Amino acid sequence: MASRPYFIPIRVRGMYRLILMAIAALIAAAAIFSSVALRANATTDEVAIQQVIRGALTATHTLEVPPPAYQGGIMPDAINQQMIDRVPVVLSQYYTGSPLARNVNVIQANIRADKPGKVRYLAGGVENLVFTSISVNGSTALVSVSLTAWTRVAQDQNGTLVQANPHNDVDYTFTLTKASGRWLIDSEAWSFRPGSAP
Question: Are residues 151 and 61 in contact, defined by beta-carbon separation less than 8 angstroms?
């Protein structure tokens, strides 16, 4: 007598499918949470590195935002100069060498370009920040990060402020060096994820 082929009833198969989907979701969530900043098992160096990178990304996306005293129009010389002078002071907490010089030059140039008031940088920042890998070797580190960068800008078009709020998904790679107990970024590279370029 031939044996009957093995089968799983439809309801049971559906239950197995749900269980497998739940397991897959838990695994994916665990992978994400394990890479989020300030992980429970992160070393002291890893925590410090993550704090430096978070600070650097926040600074580079907010230093162009004018202080509340500026309400539009041509920016007063004192406010413009105050913003320009602040850039190297803030960025030197996170960067060293060529990336420090490059970011200072770019941000200061953007602040000068915004002085006439035709374009206003209203806000900026990063979200969905995930540390995908951190490799520490003595006093050097290699870090990969994925994030969403956003800005809110306004352009004066014949007296009317037209706002835009672009969001872009970006992958970063940083190298850092540790000197006198401080981690600083000494190189950075980034690229838009496919379909996210402006």
Answer: yes
pLDDT digit string, tens, across residues 70-102: 988 899 999 999 999 999 999 999 999 999 999
Tokens read off for 145: 């990060």
Residue 37's Cβ-count burial label (10 Å; 0-12, 13-18, 19+) is middle
For the chain, the maximum distance between any two Cα atoms, rounded to a whole number of angstroms, is 96
35: buried, middle or exposed (CB in 10 Å: 19+, 13-18, 0-12)?
middle
Which residue has better confidence, 40 or 176? 176
Burial class (CB in 10 A: 0-12, 13-18, 19+), 138: exposed
| Contact yes or no for 153/167 (Cβ under 8 A) | no
What the block records as the tokens of 27 is 């695994």
The total of other beta-carbon atoms located within 10 Å of residue 156's CB is: 15
Spatial distance between the Cα atoms of 133 and 142, rounded to a whole number of angstroms? 8
Alpha-carbon distance of 54 to 62, in angstroms, equals 12
3-state helix, strand, coil in the chain (%, to 5): 40, 35, 25
Helix-then-strand count for the chain, H and E: 4, 5
Non-local CB neighbours of 105 within 8 Å, separated by 6+ positions: none
Find tokens 């200061």 and name the residue: 108
For 67, the token pair is 């202080």
Compute the residue count for the chain.
198
